[in-house]
Specification:
The complex is a heterotrimer of chains A (305), B (390) and C (126).
Chain A: H1 2-15, E1 21-22, H2 29-39, H3 49-54, H4 84-94, E2 99-109, E3 120-134, E4 137-150, E5 153-165, H5 187-194, E6 199-202, E7 209-210, E8 226-229, E9 233-242, E10 254-261, E11 266-271, E12 284-293, E13 296-303
Antiparallel strand pairs in A: 1-3, 2-5, 3-4, 4-5, 6-7, 6-8, 9-10, 9-12, 10-11, 12-13
Helix pairs in contact in A: 1-4
Chain B: E1 8-15, H1 26-41, E2 50-54, H2 61-68, E3 75-79, H3 86-98, E4 104-112, H4 124-127, H5 132-137, H6 148-163, H7 167-181, H8 196-201, E5 204-207, E6 209-210, E7 219-228, H9 229-232, E8 240-248, H10 268-281, E9 290-292, H11 299-307, H12 316-319, H13 338-341, H14 348-359, E10 371-375, E11 382-389
Helix pairs in contact in B: 1-2
Chain C: E1 11-15, H1 17-26, H2 37-42, H3 52-67, E2 72-80, E3 88-100, E4 103-112, E5 115-125
Antiparallel strand pairs in C: 1-3, 2-5, 3-4, 4-5
Classes of the chains: A alpha+beta (305), B alpha/beta (390), C alpha+beta (126).
Chain lengths: 305, 390, 126
């Protein structure tokens, strides 16, 4: 599959720029007016000839950021068959990467445009990178470059990057997760998570904090133990990104972190709401107690806000 | 000198073929391996009075004795903690022989660990056992950490962070094992060496571990026959002396998840094994001619080299560079291909290779072998052996 | 004189449904997720949300409000973060990060209820 994608990417890249696509209308004042009204932009050079001239323009100019508006497909618009972005989107739709999100848009304006100028646009495929594991799911970054011209003169360019990704199923069946055995020595911990607390075993005799807990203090031998409630903040001491095999109640891939709590003990937990690629040792995390059902509340972690 | 060093010898080794689907029962694999080992030793089932295996083995000592027609047993024992038991089965045998409790003890391990029950999957049975192990598992399995690869990866990630080791450093272990396996006709990966680039491009199992950092699950059986040094002199094979045998468990020890110690970059239980081995045998790392190090996952080979004193902490990646682990290198590693290359028989196939190297009868024979170090499962309470020529 | 570190006056935008729809139409973007809540929700969104052309336009407005009519906008580069759904309030803040002759680089963040919606850099000359 990956090979087929790479072949198609090379083919589209080699095909070069799409044919220039002219805007429906030339640059015009009514569309400029719609824009400045909707966005609330009060810059006078877009609507007032004298103000534009005072600012050094040859009369009214269009907002530079409108450049893409002039060549939008419109209400019933269709992509040209040689449009590289369209070709890429179809390729990834077919490959199961059905969702899309734009990530970057970089516009460069070579000059301001005046009403009456007719703009055309062509597109080239700049780059395709993937597959990447992202917070949204596995996907590919597709980067295209648009060039707008008036006649033969390039007047603006845009680098545009989208992520085409395979969305994860809505939510894993977390209730399938493996259950802890609860007994005399650890019930306080699981009762704590259910009560909204992260409890760490504490020795009332010598003060030692301990996790995982046990029935007898290894430091002083005391057999009566209580607990303190942790603040729920810590840092990643180590972590893994689990890809294989499937684990009950977990959505692949997922991150398990060994969290060092502010209180000094370490604890394992799934790190959620995070792009696995951004996890690192030392990362600050915060507790995210998650009720699985009436019998189990698990301590998950998420990046500290 | 310890009470068991140089008292017992390995006189026979036997194995089934290693495969992905043996097509027969685990008990039959055990019986075949034990019979082959006895044949190799020039002994009969009636000579056997002791059997030792792993507590994880599904074949009871009495079932194996029945199949072999062993008339009576006077010693039987099992060792806990998965692959950590491997060398300890031989220690049990050596202790029984050294104390006169038994005369001929066979250590065995046989499983359909590929076609039957796969250890690489998540064990829901372990996680729900009403035992201290089950309670321990409750601190990792519900959080999603429930496979050996993931358990090792957690330490590997920290090791990389602290010492600057890379995935390529891990990959070099796999490449050398596969190079050795490629010339071992009994190996899974006979004729299938890999490159570092192939290691790097193999898919993720649990980051930072690639597929080629992980051994392949296998079906098969291995048996080892132990008797006294005196009796060994009358048997056909050159005796392989058990110069040292030790077990080790460390402070705040867990099974695969000892994550709560100050550092997460070592295997202190293996350090405890190593110190005993050097002391029992009166040897030092530089005296080792072949190292058979437990290699179900590559990162722990690097850490073992450090724990056992072959190099300072954090420097294994430099130690293994430049072909040091290849035959002819500074410390030939796993000439049979290890568990990454030959088969994963819970470390027992490594002991058999140690025996062949001392005998001078291995397919990838290292020259002038006086001492072989063998280690057992890592990340768990473990064990080790030093084997030597008579 | 503009100096590195100068902060721009904040701009607050009420992303009412009317705002989301009128800007989408003004930018000739007729994708249903920008004007039809039922369809937006069917596609997994909480509500209709701002389109990218508007983001670029708002960043432009935010900077030229400060830089004045004489400024020339040369480049607007934005990274997109969390969506800005209808009924959100976006707050734009900015800071001058480089001054090179007439060229002024401004970093811009537009933040909504869910976090950073747009993070950008604008190059203007004046």
């Amino acid at each position: 599959m990956t090979e087929r994608i790479h072949d198609e990417v090379e083919r589209v890249k080699a095909a070069g720029a799409s044919a220039p696509k002219p805007g429906r209308d030339p640059v015009n004042q009514p569309m400029i007016n719609n824009w400045v009204e909707a966005l609330g932009d009060t810059n006078p050079i877009y609507v007032d000839d004298a103000a534009a001239r005072a600012a050094g323009h040859d009369g009214i100019v269009a907002p530079p950021a409108m450049i893409q508006v002039w060549t939008m497909g419109g209400l019933h618009g269709q992509r040209n068959t040689d449009d590289p972005l369209g070709l890429m989107l179809r390729l990834f739709d077919d490959a199961g990467y059905t969702s899309i999100v734009a990530t970057n848009c970089e516009q460069t304006y070579h000059r301001y445009l005046h009403p009456g100028e007719q703009v055309s646009m062509h597109t080239t495929l700049e780059d395709v990178v993937g597959p990447k594991q992202t917070g949204l799911g596995e996907g590919w970054f597709v980067t295209t470059r648009n060039v707008w011209t008036v006649g033969d003169e390039p007047v603006a360019e845009m680098l545009f990057r989208v992520l085409k990704f395979a969305p994860r199923p809505a939510s894993p069946d977390r209730s399938a997760v493996l259950r802890p055995i609860v007994g005399h020595d650890n019930a306080f911990f699981w009762e704590g998570t259910a009560a909204g607390e992260l409890r760490v075993q504490h020795c009332p005799t010598c003060g030692r904090l301990r996790h995982p807990p046990g029935p007898m203090c290894p430091s002083c031998g005391a057999d009566k133990q209580d607990w303190v409630v942790a603040a729920g903040r810590g840092t990643v001491f180590s972590y893994v990104v689990h890809h294989h095999p499937p684990v009950p109640g977990k959505q692949l891939p997922f991150v398990v972190a060994l969290v060092e709590l502010e209180e000094g003990v370490r604890m394992l937990g799934e790190l959620i709401d995070v792009d696995p690629a951004t996890v690192h040792v030392g990362m600050s995390v915060q507790l995210a107690l998650t009720k699985i059902d009436d019998e189990l509340t698990l301590p998950f972690w998420r990046p500290a806000s | 000198m310890s009470a068991i060093a140089d008292k017992a010898a390995i006189v026979g080794i036997g194995a089934t073929e290693f495969s992905k689907d043996s097509g027969r029962s685990e008990l039959r694999l055990a019986a075949e391996a034990v019979r082959a080992a006895l044949n190799d030793a020039g002994l009969a089932p009636a000579d056997v009075d002791g059997l030792v295996t792993f507590s994880m083995d599904n074949n009871t000592e009495v079932a194996v004795a029945r199949e072999l027609g062993i008339p009576s047993l006077e010693f039987f024992s099992r060792i806990q903690y998965g692959g950590g038991a491997a060398c300890a089965t031989v220690q049990q045998a050596a202790m029984a022989v050294a104390t006169g409790i038994a005369d001929v003890v066979v250590c065995y391990r046989a499983f359909n660990e590929r076609s039957g029950y796969r250890y690489g999957q998540v064990s829901s049975a372990l996680a729900s056992a009403p035992t201290s192990s089950g309670i321990d598992a409750g601190w990792s399995y519900p959080m999603g950490l429930g496979t050996p690869a993931a358990q090792v990866a957690m330490i590997a990630q920290r090791y990389m962070h602290v010492y600057g080791a890379t995935s390529e450093d891990f990959g070099r272990v796999s490449v050398v094992d596969r190079k050795h396996a490629a010339t071992n006709p009994n190996a899974f990966f006979y004729g299938k060496p890999i490159t570092l680039a192939e290691h790097q491009s193999s898919r993720w199992i649990v980051e930072p571990l690639h597929l080629l950092d992980c051994c392949q699950e296998s079906d098969g059986g291995v048996a080892i026959v132990v008797t006294s040094v005196e009796r060994a002199r009358d048997l056909p094979n050159p005796p392989v002396i058990i110069r040292a045998a030790a077990q080790g468990s460390g402070s705040d020890q867990f099974v695969m998840t000892s994550y709560y110690r100050d550092a997460l970059t070592g295997l202190p239980e293996m350090g405890i094994v190593g110190e005993q081995l050097w002391s029992q045998a009166g040897l030092a790392p530089e005296d080792v001619d072949v190292a058979v190090l437990y290699d179900h996952f590559t990162p722990f080979v690097l850490i073992q080299l450090e724990e056992l004193g072959f190099c300072p902490r954090g420097e294994a990646r430099h130690f293994i560079a430049d072909g040091a682990l290849e035959i002819g290198g500074r410390l030939p590693l796993n000439p049979h291909g290890g568990q990454l290359g030959e088969a994963y028989i819970h470390g027992m196939n490594g002991i058999a290779e140690g025996v062949r190297q001392v005998r001078g009868a291995a397919v990838n024979q290292v020259e002038d072998v006086a001492h072989v170090l063998v280690t057992a499962g890592t990340g768990v309470p473990t064990s080790g052996l030093i084997l030597g020529a008579a | 004189m503009t100096a590195v570190g100068e902060t721009l006056p904040e701009l607050s935008i009420d992303a009412t449904p009317t705002f989301v729809v009128s800007t989408a139409i003004a930018t000739r973007d007729f994708q249903d997720v920008h004007h039809d809540r039922d369809k937006a929700q069917a596609r997994g969104s909480a509500d209709i949300f701002l389109n990218i052309l508007t983001d670029t336009g708002l960043v432009e407005r935010f900077v030229t409000d400060w830089a004045g009519p004489n400024a020339r906008v040369k480049n607007i580069s934005i990274r997109l973060g969390v969506p800005a759904y209808a009924y959100d309030t976006l707050t734009f803040s900015g800071e001058v990060t480089a001054v090179d002759g007439d060229d002024i680089t401004v970093s811009v963040v537009g933040r909504g209820k869910l976090g950073d919606h747009v993070i950008g850099t604008v190059l203007v000359t004046r």
